[in-house]
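Appendix C reproduces, verbatim, an entry submitted by the partner laboratory led by Prof. M.T., so that reviewers can inspect both the input and the predicted structure.
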Amino acid sequence: MKPLNGLWTSPLIEHARSIQHSFCYQPVKRKKMKKKWIVIPSLLVLIVIGIMVMPILQHFWEQSRPRPKVVVDGPMRAKAIDTLVAKLNDHYIFPDKAKQVAAVLRQRQQEGKYDGITDGEQLTQQLTADIQGVAPDRHMEVGFAPGLVLPDDNGAQPPETREDWEQRTNFVMRQIMRHMAKRQVEEVNHLSPNIGYLKLAGFPPDFLVAEKFGAAMDELADTDGLIVDLRHNGGGAPESVALLVSYFVDQRTRLNDIWDRATGETKQYWTADKLDGKRYGCKKPVLILVGPGTMSAGEDFAYTMQALKRATVIGEPTWGGANPARPHRIGEHFYAVIPGRRTISAITHTNWEGTGVTPDIAAKPDNALAVATDLLQRRVRGGAPLVAVGR
């Protein structure tokens, strides 16, 4: 949990400093009375911010501070395994496979394979390996996090709209989340006057990243070709994938369907009719860089653009996780991430689970940008096909 502390508290500090600077900055030659009237409001603002931020900082301090060592005993192991079996049977998208996993876990439990494991990390690693041996779903894992308290399964689902999100979060948290979402658009640049470069670390909720996507695409609209770098993309929301794909098509297009086991319903994902920024259109070449660090929603974007024949994918095969998952509490210190939804491409009628996205042009991830830049430069200069010469 330590990374959370750095990710969340640094924006708070930066935000407070920026407010302090905006209120306090004045030319040096001012009368003392005016300085007082400048400093006093600044201090009041910082005090108010401190009061609002303190509960959040306290929460993340509690999450990030060193935890006492938890010794896993027999009852704790039994409860975690029993609950894990129940959650798999209740939520996993393939019920028959869940039963097979449960049978294996029960057999190994009876054989005493888990007896004597008193370390939580070791236990969850063994359980994950046993599950993956039967159901090699990349999103599925068992985790150990002392002190972590997850909501009950019947709790509120993540917000899907800006209005719902605003009602359920306070002002400070909204500013933090907006800041973090914008940081997922890591770089927007021109590699040359006619070649654009867009680097994405993730796909935050569409209502948080739509404005940033729009600004990025406005900046890149005048280029003759574009490289989208997803080599270190950790994934995110399918709605944001559909939003970004929308910039590269000229008409409304159906992309993916996601079936939800809990409801039995299938949700269709279409491109957006209205966008914040300029459309890039369906004519100019787009190259997508991928590798083993391209995960989940990052794979979704590459897979969908490739299936639409709208982009050329360069690099190495991606991670291979297509089924959306959520965490479930299975004990006081244990959780299980279980895929409860299944992505089905409206174009290929399957997905990239287990296989990843296979690049059109193979290249080592460290060399993929150079390969893409060379190919794109030759393409925009003379219309040469996007084929790696001599590779």
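Residues 2-64 form one domain. Additional entries are available on request from the coordinating office.
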